[in-house]
Amino acid sequence: MKNFKTLGLVTAALFTASIALTACGSGSTKTASTSAPSAAATTAATAAASTTPKADGGKVTITVGAYSILKDSFDVILPKFKEEYKKKTGTTVEFQESYVASGSQATAIIQGFEADIAPLSLEGDIQKIVEKGLITHDWKKTPQKGFVTTSIAAIGVREGNPKGIKDWSDLTKPGVEVLIPNPSTSGGAKWDINAVYGAGLKISEAAGKQDPAVAKDLVAKIYKNIKVLDKSGADSLATFDKGVGDAIITYENELVARIQTGKKYVEVIPQYTTSIENPVAIIDKYVDKHGNRAAVQAFYDYLFSVDAQKVFADKGFRSVLPEVAKQYEKNYTTPAGLFNIEYLGGWDKVNKDLYGKGAIWETILAEGGAK
């Protein structure tokens, strides 16, 4: 029997557990645990989130609630910012960090995890925080419309591409085991499924008429070959790293980063795929409570600096700054059939038609059987 995993929305207790913060010394960086700790640790994590120090005594704490894939980039960016901010202001910045699936992170923030800034995978996850009154400014009113990184959905295969995978349709073949995260918890999974569904629309369009039934059929056939549904994009990649699966649907930047570290993977860019836009926003209510707006705003601005954007680009993202994107354009292939979320009607339509109750994804799950 196949080893399938199906993950729904996790409970508030699990959200709190996933953001348990490890105490460090002065000027250190604090990183969240991704495993479920004891009840005592959970209580301590909640207390830590609600008592973030205010900006006084030459020291300030910034709490970051990010989606999982950003950790590698932030491991480089945070120390750079701390050094720069110290030189400019004399203030020492401490970071508390949490990296979990985007949907889980948004829910944790809504339920009381006091993140000062949230770089997430989906615009819709930021919007959920807005709707709860925690973000009070127009987070999209920036030259980049609030998006801090971009990428595309791609297919990762093993060295030599033994299954001969060239496009989405090859993932429907018998004997091909596919990995993808679960869209109920992972923003990356929604981008992945959007890519496949949109490709189906493009294929039918090229044949004469756009047909949602063709798009649904392509997603359903790939779903039958899914080996594991992990809770996040990072978890899905970790499973692939362990040798599970023949192909993984993921962000291009994750494949590029792994190939750079010596993983014997090959990136396959389908003829039709989606561009990916990842947002970031300051959580006004928590920043006002913590009294650290100057430092948080400086960190937000730094994420859009050339230095930070080069780190993102080095990690495989496509930069939102034209001058940085130009420097790295030789590293990327842009398929002729690239489309964006607007091709699918925007996130409101996608969340209703693809991921809503009784919608396409839920129907595919039911028709495909329990996994």
Structural overview:
- The strands form two sheets. Strands 4, 5, 6, 7, 8, 9, 10 and 11 form an eight-stranded mixed β-sheet that branches.
- The protein is globular and about 60 Å long.
- The chain is built from 15 helices and eleven strands.
- α4 (102-110) packs parallel to α5 (123-131), α6 packs across α7 and α12 runs parallel beside α13 (322-328).
- It is of the alpha/beta class and 371 residues long.
- Helices cover 42% and strands 18% of the residues.
What string gives the helices and strands in order? HEHEHEHEHEEHHEHEHEEHHHHEHH
Low-confidence stretches: 1-57
End-to-end gap:
10 Å
What coarse outline follows from CA principal-axis ratios?
globular
Total of helices: 15
Number of strands: 11
Output mean pLDDT.
86
The biggest beta sheet reads: 8 strands, mixed
- How large, in whole angstroms, is the Cα Rg? 20 Å
Layout of secondary structure:
Elements: H1 12-18, E1 29-31, H2 39-50, E2 59-67, H3 71-89, E3 92-100, H4 102-110, E4 117-119, H5 123-131, E5 147-158, E6 178-181, H6 187-206, H7 212-224, E7 226-230, H8 233-241, E8 247-251, H9 252-260, E9 265-268, E10 272-282, H10 284-290, H11 293-303, H12 306-314, H13 322-328, E11 337-339, H14 347-353, H15 360-368
Parallel strand pairs: 1-3, 2-3, 6-7, 6-8, 10-11
Antiparallel strand pairs: 4-10, 5-8, 5-9, 5-10
Helix pairs in contact: 4-5, 6-7, 7-15, 12-13
